[in-house]
Amino acid sequence: FPLASDIQDIRDNIRLMARLIDKKAQGELLVADMDSRLEQVKQQRPTHRPKGVFYQPNGYTSGAHTLQHSALELAGWDNVAVSEGVVGYGAIDLERLILAKPVQLFTSSYAPGTQSRGQQMLQHPVLRRLTEGRKPIEVAYKYWICGGPMIAEAVEILHRSLPQ
Q1: Which of 26, 78, 79, 146 has the most C-beta neighbours closer than 10 Å?
Q2: Alpha-carbon distances of 21 from 2, 10, 67, 119, 150, rounded to whole Å
Q3: What does the mean pLDDT of the chain come to?
Q4: If residue 8 lies in a helix (H) or strand (E), which one and from where to where?
């Protein structure tokens, strides 16, 4: 199966698997449920998209053509990584992040409970000032490790985190 980098890729992979295991109807139900949930979020997205970014240890981030970008966009966020020219997975240094002025940082801990030097960077005081004291929001890594219908839940989490 090809890696999924957007919602259409997920639909295609679900349908391919359903066809391979002779469960087309169940596959279509999964796709329909995912699409229904995504459509509900779409109907509630703000007209103004606040700036957000997935910011991982060592400035690692998700730009265009990634599931995290697709989820941010579907939820109503403007992905700072894309504005900064990141395609796929890359890094944004702290200075560029400050200049981009995101209002919210998101993270997905690969190894929760560990404290590497890269992870300590996420506690930098300037990041808290940048987001007016809002802590990074953890969106579990399980949503990104493999593209599947659980993307709808990730989009809902990101949507609920929009500033009111």
Answers
A1: 79
A2: 17, 17, 25, 41, 20
A3: 89
A4: helix 7-20
pLDDT confidence tier of residue 113, bands split at 50, 70 and 90:
low
pLDDT digits (tens, 9 = 90+) for 85-112: 999 999 998 889 999 999 999 988 766 6
Nearest to residue 161, comparing CAs of 129, 138, 140?
138
Question: Alpha-carbon Rg of the chain, whole angstroms?
Answer: 16
Q: Which two tokens stand for residue 116?
A: 């590497």
In the numeric block, which tokens belong to residue 145?
């490790």
Report which of 81, 93, 87 is spatially closest to residue 54, judged by C-alpha positions.
Answer: 81
Q: Which residue segments constitute the domains of the chain, with CATH numbers given?
A: 1-164 (3.40.50.1980)
Contact 160/152 with Cβ under 8 angstroms? no
Long-range contacts of 130-137 (CB under 8 A, 24+ apart): 130/97, 130/98, 130/101, 130/102, 131/102, 131/103, 131/104, 131/105, 132/103, 134/103, 134/104, 134/105, 136/55, 136/104, 136/105, 136/106, 136/107, 137/104, 137/105, 137/106, 137/107, 137/161
pLDDT at 53 over 80: yes
Q: Which of 51, 39, 147, 33 is nearest to 106 (CA)?
A: 51
Mean pLDDT confidence for 121-147:
81
